Amino acid sequence: MLLVLLVRELPNRRAHRIFEPSRKKLLIKSRGLVRSGDRRDAVAAFEFVGANQAMHRIATMCRVLGVSPGGYYARRTRPLAARARADAELSAGVAEIHRRSRQTYGAPRIHAELRAQGSAVSCKRVARLMRALKLRGVSRRQWITTTVRDHAARPAPDLVERNVS
């Protein structure tokens, strides 16, 4: 978050002042706070650069976030991956099944519907797509106890005088 705040506060042309010797050490040490280095965080950095390119230079933001400008431009022109395309198609099917069920089906039932339609997909993938679409199934209600016994109360007298021993 520190780097993001610094990038937002920088004027357009004076971003190089961020690398003063006293601040450079701080930025290097705090790099893990913004991005840990894995691929998912690079995507988040590219999205941040795209959202803020009107305020700051792309090369400056890429340098501060630790990603390459070439990677940013390549990601903009690259078509969707095969899995992303398949997820988009499958998401439409999941949303349609969920709509047809009056928003009651969860991941297991939607998975069963997709399997019946001939789609080989796992239940965990359906659950992930449902989370991304913010879809939830309806759970059965919990059993509600309407009468709560008072253990301190005197028990009713045995008027029949039963012998249960």
Mean pLDDT: 81
| Rg value | 29 Å
Number of helices: 9
End-to-end distance: 74 Å
Q: Report the sheet with the most strands, covering strand number, pairing sense and barrel closure.
A: none
Task: Summarize the helix and strand pattern as letters.
Answer: HHHHHHHHH
Work out the number of β strands: 0
The percentage helix is 55-70%
- What characteristic shape results from the CA principal axes? elongated
Strand residues, percent: under 5%
Structural class: mainly alpha
The residue ranges in which pLDDT falls below 50 over 5 or more consecutive positions are: 1-7, 13-19
In words, what does this structure look like?
This protein is 55% helix and 0% strand. The protein has nine helices and no strands. Helix 4 runs antiparallel to helix 5 and helix 8 packs across helix 9.
In short:
The chain has 165 residues and is mostly helical.
Summary tags:
disordered N terminus, mainly alpha, 9 helices
Task: Give the topology.
Layout: H1 2-9, H2 21-29, H3 31-34, H4 39-51, H5 58-65, H6 69-77, H7 82-100, H8 107-116, H9 123-133
Helix pairs in contact: 4-5, 7-9, 8-9
